[in-house]
Amino acid sequence: MKSITLIALTTITLMGADGYKVYKNNCMKCHAEMMTKAEVIKSINTLKAPPMIEVSNKLKNNIFTMDDDEDVKRRVVIAFVKDYIDNPSVQYSMCEPMAIEKFGIMPSLKGKLTEAQKQAVSEWVYDHYEGKTFN
Ligand code: HEC
To answer: Among 22, 60, 82, 105, which is most exposed with the fewest C-beta within 10 angstroms?
Structure first.
């Protein structure tokens, strides 16, 4: 039994950080995991940031790649998220101006996450919401 647990743990370590865990520890206090548009409107005054389903949908809708390959687009979106964690900026934000006025620009998390954690959470932001529409 023990060796099975050990093998399982080793596999997780080799695969890198757990994106959902990184999200829960570093993003969730501002970005809710799941919300509908109606819920966002209702609780706009207590929200600190757009919910992550909205962020994920927005990036997928706004980032175009000429290549038809879904993998290319996935990599570009993941690279955007990964960079945004360290370098949030009004120049790169795809939030509506009104939302930025309301929430302000995200504070930089530079130095708080390892490369592997940034990669894992960025992949999670893409993959977790595949087929899930913000509406
Ligand atoms: C202290 C609050 C806070 C934390 C913590 C936080 N964010 Fe944000 N984030 C914001 C706010 C506010 C915005 C909207 C304004 C903007 O685009 O900068 C935002 C925007 C974003 C955007 C850009 C969305 C767009 O449309 O351009 C991404 C990507 C993002 N966050 C990812 C993350 C990830 C991943 C984490 C965790 C590793 C995280 N955020 C942690 C507050 C936060």
So the answer is: 105
Q: Which two tokens stand for residue 35?
A: 């919300």
pLDDT tens-digit readout, 72-117: 999 999 999 999 999 999 888 888 888 888 999 999 999 999 999 9
d(CA 73, CA 49): 24
Domain ranges of the chain: 17-127
- Topology of the domain covering 17-127: Cytochrome Bc1 Complex; Chain D, domain 2 (1.10.760)
Which of the listed residues 62, 84, 93, 134 should we mutate to test ligand 1's pocket, taking the one with most ligand atoms within 8 A of CB?
84
Q: How many helices (H) and strands (E) does the chain have?
A: 7, 0
Number of the ligand 1 atom closest to the C-alpha atom of 105? 18
